[in-house]
Amino acid sequence: MNQISDEGYITADGRKIGAVMMEMKNITLRFGGVKAITDISFDIRQGEIRAIIGPNGAGKSSMLNVISGFYIPQEGEVWFHGKKRAPMRPFQVAQQGIARTFQNIALFEGMSVLDNVMTGRLTHMKSGMLSQAIWKGKAEREEVANREVVEKVIDFLEIQAIRKTPVARLPYGLKKRVELARALAAEPKLLLLDEPMAGMNVEEKEDMSRFILDVNDEFGTTIALIEHDMGVVMDLSDRVVVMDYGKKIGDGTPDEVRNNQNVIDAYLGVAHD
Amino acid sequence: MAQSSQATGGLTSIPALLQRNATEFANRSAYREKEFGIWQSWTWAQTAQEIDSLALGLINLGVNEGDFIAVIGRNRPHLYWSMVAAQSVGAIPVPLYQDASAEEMAYVLDHCGARFVIAEDQEQVDKVIEVQQGLHQFEHMIYLDPRGMRKYDHSQLHEFSHVQEQGHAARDELTHELKARRGKLDYASVCVMLYTSGTTGKPKGVVLSNRNVIESAKNSVEFDHLKPDEELLAYLPMAWVGDFIFSLGQAYWAGFCVNCPESPETLAVDLREIGPTCYFAPPRVFETQLTNVMIRMEDATRMKKRMFDYFMAHAKKVGPDILDGKPVGGLDRLKYALGNLFIYGPLKNTLGLTRVRVGYTAGEAIGPEIFDFYRSLGINLKQLYGQTEATVFITAQPDGEVRSDTVGVPAPGVELKIGDNGEVYYRSPGVFEYYYKNPESTADTKDAEGWVATGDAGFIEPGSGHLRIIDRAKDVGKMADGSLFAPKYVENKLKFYPNILEAVVFGNNRDKCVAFINIDLSAVGNWAERNNIAYSSYQELAGHPKVLDAVRLHVEEVNRSVAEDEMLSGCQVHRFLILHKELDADDGEMTRTRKVRRRIVEDKFADLIGGLYDGSDEIFTKTEVTYEDGRKGHISATLKLMDAAVVPVTTHKVAAE
């Protein structure tokens, strides 16, 4: 990787990465007496694929929840687009253009794929409850416009064949894809993926990797992801943050991280003699 | 016939037919495609504009008359337009199978020397780029779907819509040229080149003229009384002659609408939404559909299941007769009408076949049970016998003369004769011009008087005049004792069981026949599920003792049925095995149209055949497999070799000799 300047950098495969989009400054998160995250700082840049990795219990999901505004850290600041972010409710975060998927799928099981993905457009609907109920004028126009966005996402993720299928009937790998579709339907600037490949077979992982790369490439979406599968992380991401016991032990390109002694120790264990 | 007289009035090419349709049917739908969840449609007038823009764009890119333009992708309106645009500028469209591997494509692209390729998406573009080093004549590629293409080097790559825009922008300078080139097209000019699937050896490029295509389209449209308001669903490979004739030839001649599905996976839903009036499918599609219906009925409630069984039994009894307009009693008719209300109607609706007026199946023999099932529902399913070299039609079944064991009478304009060795020959206006760059094969296939050898052995039934096909002529052989060996005949009987997907019978010059079997994973898998049989892979299920026993019963039933035929009673299967892998086109064991390549299977599994003949009980084997992405791997298995009871036939032979 070239030197990172304020404006950004060029990745190994020649993509242009922009300025800092989100910056975490000295974040500390406590649950009672337990410190989940201790004094962590890192940034996420415009257009990059940023991974957070670490062994079980390292605090990765907590970190993602801080980014998504679900947890409010006791210490430290979250800066988004050059402004310090005040504590806010999850829907306000969504309105800022951040969307996420969940480690243990959180879809509406009884609803069709289409309806589930439509819920991703919620923050883009402005018409009032009354006009939605009567289904005339603005509400109708809005629904058509939103459906168009949703259909493009469905086409993009190649899930046309299950458009009308209730989510409960789908296999796990497809549910994951539907979750991604819902997040994409929000047209996010920053997409958070919590273990997008967990529990998938090789083929499903390959598909998901391709979709993640395509999303980044086609829409220029910035992506932050947590993942266990090292092969996937190293192939996908531009920069990696490594956490262990709530602390940051490494940060850099996949190659840098791979050769970082702290990281090797954390993953392979150290001999105590 | 008003249209026949028009044929002499200048309608001697597909682009000329397009011009006629654009004025005569200007506001009727010509194409529909489901995209973004909605059926998008184009009228004939819009279609003509789209094709003109593209044709101008092609001239702009430097396409010359006589150039070959390869078209690769699934059925999409834009790719059909590409073929007509190519014809409009005097070039020759060459549709390719979209699931062909890069090497297979390389052979065809090199053989025809395509200067231009029109590809559907990144997947197809990647394949061509992979092999383009070896293609000296290749110059430009046009792609339809821009997804993922942004980072490619665009010095030789062009987006479809841009080519159209550039063509449209340059219309003032180029329209004259386009008109001049289109004006030169006549009955003798080349309409399309289609590659045969290559059951034996390398694929051959079959050159079809406008005369071949338009005459065949005209005759078949008249034969089945197709009108401008027909709806067709185009889903079979564009490289296949049938699709070219149905979706282009017939559609342009009759002026009806071609519908393209959203994706291959949504086919069933799209079929229901469109409700086509003409429907063409190979027997395999009907088999799969029927298997699915039966599987779902097994899971239905008892009430529904009993109603289904009751009314289906009645349909079997009187349905085909009602369809053929034969006399049927009033009570039976009433019961059939009730069945139609409760069972047949809803079932046809689920299958998307409610409006089918003309349904055809061809390519392989269809099981009588499957055939009768559809006909008993009131679906006018008929059989057709054809070849690329004949521009599809050799024989077809007229309404009211439909049977599962024949392929019908000669299609309009076709003459038939049976050679001394039993091979079927035909002569018709659809007979192809020549094989591209292959005069020897042309001479072997087509004689000076225009008779073409089909390569199939058969006979014309005395009385009805229907043609019956026995087998591929070169596959028909002799057993060691001199009796007739016709493997396909036995294989078809085996394949009619839902559990058996594919069968290959060996026995030429041997004293007895043996067989390889592929089980049908969906049918056998469902059976296993209902009987609490656990399995983790195809291979494991294929080797399960209960599956082996079930298949043995099928084989023995087939043996009894084969024994009844005096001529072929020697073909009973003495021993068989269930293969550990499905025969696959990626491994070269089948053609892309899913016909078994007998010789290759015989060579590849020679060890297994040896085992079947030397009497051993089981055999260990290791087979190379090719994955979809071209990587190779090995699978190994120990296969059980099974004995099957045969019916003694010695008495027959004494009588025959």
UniProtKB/TrEMBL annotation, chain A:
The record's section on InterPro entries has:
AAA+_ATPase, ABC_AA/LPS_Transport, ABC_transporter-like_ATP-bd, BCA_ABC_TP_C, P-loop_NTPase
> What keywords is this UniProt entry annotated with?
ATP-binding, Nucleotide-binding, Transport
Give this protein's Gene Ontology molecular function annotations.
ATP binding; ATP hydrolysis activity
Q: Which residues form the ABC transporter domain?
A: 22-270
Membrane-crossing residues?
Answer: none
- What Gene Ontology cellular-component terms does the record carry? plasma membrane
Concerning PANTHER family, the annotation shows: ABC TRANSPORTER ATP-BINDING PROTEIN, CONSERVED COMPONENT OF ABC TRANSPORTER FOR NATURAL AMINO ACIDS-RELATED
Q: What is this protein called?
A: Amino acid/amide ABC transporter ATP-binding protein 1, HAAT family
TrEMBL record, chain B:
Locate the AMP-dependent synthetase/ligase domain: which residues? 18-436
Q: Which GO terms describe its molecular function?
A: long-chain fatty acid-CoA ligase activity
Q: Which GO terms describe its cellular component?
A: membrane
Provide this UniProt record's keywords sorted from A to Z. Answer: Fatty acid metabolism, Ligase, Lipid metabolism
Name of this chain's protein: Long-chain acyl-CoA synthetase
Instruction: Please indicate if the UniProt record lists Ligase as a keyword.
Output: yes
Carries keyword Lipid metabolism? yes
Q: Where is the signal peptide?
A: none
